[in-house]
Known about the structure:
5 domains, CARBOXYPEPT_ZN_1, 14 helices, elongated, CATH 3.40.630.10, 33% strand, eight-stranded mixed beta sheet, twelve-stranded antiparallel beta sheet, Jelly Rolls, metalloprotease, alpha+beta, Immunoglobulin-like, 19% helix, metal-binding
Amino acid sequence: MKQQYISYRETIEFLNKAMGEHPDLIRLQSIGETWEGRPIMLVTISNDVAYANEKPALLYTGTIHAREWIGIELATQFIQYVIDHYKTNPKLFNALTRNTLYMVPCLNPDGFEYSRRHFSFWRKNRRDNGDGTFGVDLNRNFSVRFKKSQDTSSNIYGGPEAFSEPETRAIKDFVDTHPNITIALDYHSQGNVFFPAHKFNHEEEIEGTDLNQLSANMASEISKVTGRQYGIHRGKPPLNLIHGSGREYYYNRGILATVVEVGTRNIPDYLINMKQSVDENIPAVLYALESAINYSSKAPARVSDFRAEQIGTNEVHLKWEHTSQSDCFFEVYRTPSPKHPCTNANRIAITRAHFHKDIQLNSGKRYFYTVRAVDRASGIKSPFTPALKLKTQLNSDEFSHTLFPAKTDVGYVGEKTTSLNSKHFGHNSLFVGINENKGHCLGVIAYNLENLPADTHIKTARFSLYPMNRVNAKIEKYGEWSVSIIDASEISDITSYEQIANATVIQTLGDTIPSDQLTQGIWTEWDFTGIERRILQQQITSGRIILRIEGPDSLPRGHDSQIMQFDIGYGRFGAGIHYRPNLEIIYTRNSQQLNLEPDSLYTIAREDVIEGELKSGFDNHGDKVYGHLSFNLDQLPDPEKTVVTEAYVELKAKNRLKTRKDIRFTIEMAELEELAYDDVLNRQQIEYLGYEVSNTDLKASPAHCFMFDSYCRQILEQLHSRNMPVYLIVRPTTPSQERNAIIDWHGKGENWQAKLVIKYIERRKKPLPAPTELTASIDRDSGRTRLTWKRPDDPDFVGCYVVRNRFHPPRSPLDGVKLYGGKDEYTLDDFGNPNIAKYYSVFSYDNVPNYSTPATVLFSLNEVIPISEDEDFETQEDEEERLSQSKESVEMEETSLSS
Length: 899
């Protein structure tokens, strides 16, 4: 298999040949020499390459880890792609005209050759450590958060000091002397995921959206080739997981940097897996090359103060500021989820204005927006604004409830870890799939449904789960993952593998997700279908629903693992409340019905006004005769909590007209100064109810309903709030004159007199008062930011919702990072860096929930607070292995004593 891969010597020969044949396009140089004397080759590619250093540039580094051969393979084949297509592909030609590509196909030549010739899975370089061990992990040898270690045998040994290795010194010197580099891609394997750079904070960065969008748009290019979905993992990094990496060094110098983890094995089957990996990543590298200029000094300034001025049920009013010397227009993007591509497909506006109204949105739905400026003359685009996150208002009859599992109700059960399964609950992760050590593993999540009303009618439901790691899914395109509702009545012990594995499946949600579609770092969501919503609704009576997450249950020969790891938000390595698996439900409730008799009935003709009768049509002179009726609304509950879901007036005709002419009758809402004919003619019209009823319709059926549309229902609620009756006019129309054609609609007190039917639910309409006395300070015991506030004194108070935002005051509960939701009057910012200035907002909410205007504070320190780190880094798998070994030791000791 290894013979199919290119060697380092063959790489240099290929590069020399390419430069010889294309001297105006390609330049080759050595930027350093390894411990074993190999040159570290860097190739520069650009149209008119003599001026390459004057253009914005993309830096590509590959195979910094010896066993990760994708870097050198992709680099050499991308160069061949450039040679073959740059004259005929205008997209590629323009990219090379405006930008430069710097490529280091292999940053670890010694280790790579050692991996080829001797030990396939060698990772480090070949430094002689002087103690019988060899090698430094070059991706732990950069200076940003370099961590010194004495364990030279470790695979992640970072060396005696930062930049102790000739390979890292070489790339450092090159980067430091080339300020034109704006984007850096570091190619690794494995995982099919982008790891954008971070600053070791659980904080948003101004470039955070740029990093996510660069990765998302590259992932979109990959998907076009093979359909494979790459993840993007830029959440809370484990503090001690990555120290001294090249990615963070580049980012620290102002370069957008990301690691690209390709494939599921370091050295896969070449003809199938490696070739696919190379082919799908070529257009992604080209996209990054095109984008380099957008992050250079040639680009327009970033749009600032991007905000939602108004959030409605079906529309959002966006606004922003921009100062630039160039003439710019703006591209506005809307995506349904974070880390989603921003392309022409979801660009919703191109405008010269500094505002945009986005309309025809869905109620109660999350949306994500970003804006960038575009220079009209050059077409160069600015960086993106930080993503604006929001949720549209609910419809007037809707409630929303987001369920999170308790610690004891979320975990996984392993076939071979029966003694540890109870400890898996509320502890860091769900491991789902199969491997040799754990056996078959199933995720388990139970949700308490007791807070949902018994008359709940579910309109939408969505289950969301955050995949945090797929490194142990080692087989390309193997296995499927799914979520099933299992019969909760069969489960007495949620931590029992046997009970969970053998439980009856009531329904599997949607489609299964194949391995190459299940990403890490991007929320995976299952929208409930109509059938699934009905099943969920049925579970309300039992008070809980249990979901089982499952993957493959067997392994092909020669493989040891196909397992996905999902975050649960709990435990040392969980990423907090906003990474917990959640079930979001939008529902309404059963309507109550009120049948109202008319408070008054009148027939209004030119010659007379008759009380107690309701007639309309045409008199013997051909003049119109109007019916007038009114209804008092005081039988409805509190107008601040009454939502009309349906309303109609029911009329029944006593008689039929003999004429064949097209006579029609309508009902309109109106207000009259006096019950006089002239006042009717000059009345103020408000709106018609439903559609007209014809003479023909009345012959077919004497009874008809005139429906209130949404606008009329709003008027009805307004009248109720003003303690006013509803006035209605029954109006006749005909295209030609008619005489003696009057319908009698039944008078006062008769069996079939008119009635107004109103269906309604009780639901609070207005938000609660905002919290007060919001303060932020440092909790000296923990070093974290402590927030305190006073909640409003209101019987409808349910809780307070706390978010933070680095860039502007949060204007809605989704406009930032969620920190807390509940009844308390304080919280701690568990993950934020207190040394970074930020805004905190606290919203009060009721059971709808309606959210109040926020109480907001800007928190900033004049001192530096030390950030404590967990020096004894241990993964959950490491911990389980330690506990298992401890258990085995105790059992062996007990056996020895008994014998």
